[in-house]
Amino acid sequence: MEKSENISPDTRGCESGDDARERTLMAAEKLFAEKGLDGVSIRQITSAANCNVAAVNYYFGGKQKLYIEVCRQRLDLLRELRISRIRQVMAAGNHKVTLEELLTAFAEAFMEPLIGQEYGCHTLKLFIREMIDKNLPEGMLFELLIGPIIEELLKALKVVCPELSKQDALLSIQSLAAQLARVATIQNLVSDEKIKKSPLFDLELNLKHIVKFSAAGIRAYTKNANENEDQ
Q1: Which of 2, 27, 61, 118 could connect to 48 by a Cys-Cys bridge, CB 3.0–4.6 Å?
Q2: What's the pTM value of the predicted model, to 2 decimals?
């Protein structure tokens, strides 16, 4: 069992305490993503961050709270990026926003922080592990990420497709997010450049397909709703 230390940490030449805290977060995110919460020790984290073992308890109050803070920061980043992109496209005042424009804006915001960068791969692995082995407080994922984004997308869809029922909108959002999550996962799993040339792994092609497929599904819902009203 690791000994808890609450004394001020030796930052070993760090520019400031904030620098030591940030490097601890970065090191922890990578290790948690690769090995999971239970597979990483405090000493491994502080060694990777080049800080004293007291840093985790001093800045975060322990490994569990450090894990929660790592996830909270990533959830905040993902939420704010996705919501801001939805609001940006809906605020375009020079024309009526199309369904495809809304879905494209969300799809790009969904994918952007998850691929093409090292921390994106870590973020994806971190939350895949969390879905399998839950360590976050109950409801945190929904409260900080899923719920606010669904609410924002529902408002946007109400403007773009006013005939769409809330139930159909929710199911469409779930389908859209699931497709995007699968593509993001595959993009991070495949490193062979020859394999990546296949249409199956072409990111731009996949995003266009998802937008087209999702838009068609949403329009089918609204068409059925209109036909039912006419009967």
Answers
A1: 27
A2: 0.84
24, 46 in Cβ contact below 8 A? yes
Burial of 212-221, coded b for 16+ CB within 10 Å and e otherwise, reads eebbeebeeb
pLDDT (tens place) for every residue of the chain, 231 residues total: 444 444 445 544 444 567 999 999 999 999 999 999 999 999 999 999 999 989 999 999 999 999 999 999 999 999 999 999 999 999 986 678 999 999 999 999 999 988 766 667 888 889 999 999 999 999 999 999 999 999 999 999 999 999 999 999 999 999 999 999 999 988 877 777 777 778 888 889 999 999 999 999 999 998 776 655 555
Delineate the domains of the chain, giving CATH numbers in brackets. Answer: 16-61 (1.10.10.60), 71-228 (1.10.357)
Closest CA to 103 of 170, 173, 168: 173
What torsion do the CA atoms of 72, 181, 143, 106 make, to the nearest 10 degrees?
100
d(C-alpha 36, C-alpha 160), whole Å: 41
Q: How far is CA 56 from CA 34, 68, 72, 99, 140, in A?
A: 19, 12, 16, 46, 22
Q: What are phi and psi of 77, to 5 degrees?
A: -65, -50
Amino acid at 62: G
b/e per residue, 104-125, with b = 16+ CB within 10 A? bbbbbbbbbbbbeeebbbbbbb
